[in-house]
Amino acid sequence: MKVKCPKCKEKFDIDKNSHDEGDSVECPECGASSIIAVKKGNFHLEPEESKYDKYEEEFLGDEDYEA
Ligand SMILES: [Zn+2]
C-alpha cells in the first residue's frame, strides 16, 4: 500500500501483510521513522519524532536544570 512520508512527502510502498497500525516504518528516501495509523482502512503515516520531543523536554527539565 502506498503511503506518504510526513517528513519529505516521498511516497513509498509498505506491505500491508507485514505491517499493522502502530508499527514503525522507515522512509527509504530520508530515513525518518514514522508510525502507521489507519484511517478509513488506509494506511497513513504520522511522524514519530513529535513524541520523542516531548519526552526529551521532560527529561531535560528534571535532570539538567534543577541542579
Ligand atoms: Zn521521507
Automatic annotation (TrEMBL):
InterPro entries membership: LysW
Q: Which domain of life is it from?
A: Archaea
Q: What is this protein called?
A: Lysine biosynthesis protein LysW
